[in-house]
Amino acid sequence: MALIQKRFRISDFGFRIESGWPHKSAIRNPQSAILLSCLILLAGCKVGPNFKPPQTSVPQEWAGPLPPSPVGPEPNLAVWWTQFNDPMLTSLVNSAIGSNLDLQVAQARIRQARAARGVAIGGLGPSVNATGSFRRGQSPGLAGVDSFGPTTNLYQAGFDAAWEIDVFGGVRRGVEAANADLLAAIESRWNVFITLTSEVAVNYIDLRSLQQEIVIAQENLKAQEHSADLTRQRRQGGLASGLDVANAEAQVANTATQIPVLETSVQQTIYSLSVLLGREPGALLADLSTSAPIPTAPPAVPVVVPSELLRRRPDVRQAEAQIHGATARIGVAVADLFPTFSLSASIGRQGNKFSSLSDRLNRFWSVGPSASWNLFATGRNLSNIELQKALEEESLIIYRQVVLGALQEVENALIALAKEQEHRTALIDAVAANRKVVNLATELYTQGQTDFLNVLNAQRSLYTAEDALVQSNRAVSTNLVALYKALGGGWQAEEPSRSER
Question: Most buried of 126, 133, 233, 461 (most Cβ within 10 A)?
Fold first, then answer.
């Protein structure tokens, strides 16, 4: 590939740069040696701002009530779902980690970011191209002669090499931005990981809660059917009215209507779990259709201080990496304001016959530095710098939003867990009290000492209290999951693989 034969001056630098020198005298020129030495020294510089981790003020301690401290060894937040001591839950989470599609997408984005970093790093080194060509042509004849010149052939083969010296650090800033993008992709994958494990746990807890609601509805339905039979018997004996029988049968019908709705929710929750595991919706029906208790875990959780939270949450670390990338891209844009310097070389052979390419006398070569400076770009470069600064400012604002959101998630989980535990304690007492009322009202009704309305109201209150207790048990477990998630629990599970950076 022929080099461009063009000479130009950059008077501000006090030397002449020649591009495409074809003679040995070019590399013997003292000015060239000085130029190359200066370029090598300048190559250690990088324009643009250096990244500094953002400083964000956080409270010294949490405003909400803290859970009790663990007794003995602290729970391993890396595998927090094992604290529920539910083998099925553990199996589902492990399966989801291996087959969830969102996690696979996040992993693919890491590979994309790693490849993009390789592309950026490639800009630091030289490039070498192999060339080959064949041209056949004919030139005009002599003036005044009605004829053409001879037909000639030209064969060429060789190598061209070029190396852009990163004098002002634009390429290195690009590599820095690519490294930040890779780190952001890794942290994004960990954020998906944490979200996935918590979604599997919450869906599983919802499933067991719905199944327990069905069990309670079926038990109450049996008790209400028994009361309806008793009322019909008393009606036949003249001890109860037709209104009592109608009320008893109406209550049975009302309770029965709840069961199909709950069964629908159970099926849909199983479908959701199957999709989270990357499988078809009905894949887990056989494994999860049998009722089981709601999984519970000890309320003791090692809660870190707010400042430590920012180092544990992958979404916060991802936002910080995005700031780093935006800062580095300012340097890339600033570097466009300065000239670029390159070293070029070409070597090859040419001849009018293909066989002549092997003749060493047909060899040609050239080597020399070159420079390029876009002196007028209609403000494009300056506008690009402003654009990159605005993007950096946006990433800083997003970082602050992420930090505040992380703090809010922990505070919400702390207060929700503490108050729901109080609520559950009260509901346990309420269920016990309502059960006594039902037994007493049924006994008195059987003895004819009270009317059926009291039995009816007592059964309704008991069913409501039992259903609320199931909902509270579910809320306690899901709030515990939310606290583990808010604390960044889960990402340490595969921490060694972070060395893949």
Answer: 461
